[in-house]
Design a protein that fits this description.
Elements lengths: L14 E4 L3 H11 L5 E4 L3 H10 L16 E3 L2 H6 L3 E2 L9 E4 L3 H18 L1 E2 L2 E4 L12 H10 L7 E5 L4 H5 L4 E7 L2 H11 L4 E6 L2 H23 L4 H22 L9 H12 L4 H10 L4 H6 L5 H16 L4 H11 L4 H9 L10
Length: 361
């Protein structure tokens, strides 16, 4: 099994990953593989103990041995102390926090970090989040939640998004991957690069946080649509059309909100869309496949086959409609998931739309 190449020349930079799901565990393994002092925090004390004992995350990444340099914690304060420097610890190097929690837990974990920093008068080098989607209640994107929950109370804290086409299992196995860190703070891009870039991981930088967040959210919806198409056995021509027009829809939505159009032709737009829409490890694609093969949305939920694209599709329409943004594929996915419209009917409706200039998003 290929492993990450260890770089012995990495400067000292402690990293704490909050969230011991598949992606958080994979990122912790990547950092530890570069000799970066790494703590992986799990909310479940039993899970943290099991990972420490067995050196594997049997729940989310079964069968993959993890780097022995990872330290596991279930105490949040202890995990945060690993990367924080306070007034009484002037010689301690502040480190990086990677938030690897789902969208639903982003606000809570940001508030907990903000409270810790305030309570201990502590400082860190920066914070990045990895979740992708929109809040189901108020349609906020991740950067908007982070801004409210932590950045406003700590305006000098460098924050940003870490995104791109990546299946956690492949990263944990040490297979090649390219990611983008997006931030308005160049220092954060340097910090993340220092922590993760090297061996089989390439880190690119961007200042378009909004575009990166939009791409990460909408590609999940498009992946459900592609899964439905493949489940209906509509062919590779149809899948190619959905990927292409899905990219146009993502770009149209993002540009209307203020994102840079070029972002959607990079790793966090087209790259992540192709991976999620075509890769069999994609939960969003698997949900679409199940629907296309005749499983009801209710049955999917009952079977525990939830996916971020299903959670945020209605929220995307909530943001799009007041701005008059045309979102036909997103509307089709919402109609199938929540409005009782059959997948076949939605395909017919999409094909019956008026012709238009392709150059228009």
């Amino acid at each position: 099994m290929p492993r990450l190449t260890v770089n012995m020349d990495v400067p000292y930079l402690p990293v704490t990953v909050l969230g011991a799901g598949a992606w958080g565990t994979a990122l912790a393994a990547a950092a530890a593989g570069r000799n970066v002092p790494t703590v992986l925090w799990a909310r479940d004390a039993g899970q943290a103990k099991a990972m420490q004992q067995h050196g594997t995350n049997d729940k989310y990444l079964p069968g993959i041995p993890l780097n022995p340099g990872i330290r596991y914690e279930s105490d949040l304060d202890a995990a945060l102390a690993h990367v924080s420097a306070g007034h009484s610890e002037q010689n301690k190097t502040p480190g990086l926090i990677i938030l690897a929690t789902p969208m639903a837990g982003l606000r809570h974990i940001c508030q907990a970090v903000a409270q810790y920093l305030e309570r201990h008068q502590a400082r860190i080098a920066g914070l990045v989040w990895t979740c992708k989607g929109l809040d189901a209640d108020n349609a906020q994107l991740p950067h908007e939640i982070v801004d409210e929950a932590i950045a406003k109370s700590h305006p000098d804290l460098p924050v940003g998004a870490l995104s791109g086409p990546s299946f956690a299992r492949e990263v944990a196995m040490g297979l090649p991957v390219a990611l983008t860190v997006a931030s308005k703070h160049p220092s954060l891009c340097e910090t993340v690069t220092q922590a993760l870039h090297g061996g089989n991981i390439r880190i690119y930088s961007s200042s378009d946080v909004l575009g990166v967040c939009v791409g990460g959210a909408l590609k999940n919806i498009m992946a459900i649509a592609c899964g439905i198409s493949d489940g209906l056995q509509l062919g590779t021509n149809a899948r190619a059309a959905l990927v292409t027009r899905g990219l146009a829809e993502m770009t149209r939505f993002g540009v209307a909100l203020g994102a840079h159009p070029a972002t959607f032709y990079g790793l966090t737009g087209l790259g992540d869309l192709v991976l999620t829409a075509t890769g069999d490890l994609s939960r969003n694609r698997q949900v679409g496949l199940a629907i296309g093969r005749g499983m009801s949305p209710g049955g999917i939920l009952a079977a525990g086959m939830t996916a971020e694209g299903a959670r945020c599709a209605k929220a995307v329409l909530m943001r799009a409609k007041p701005l008059g943004i045309s979102m036909p594929i997103t509307q089709a996915v919402v109609s199938v998931l929540y409005e009782g419209i059959s997948a076949g009917q939605c395909v017919s409706q999409l094909m019956a739309r008026d012709a238009k200039q392709e150059a228009e998003y």
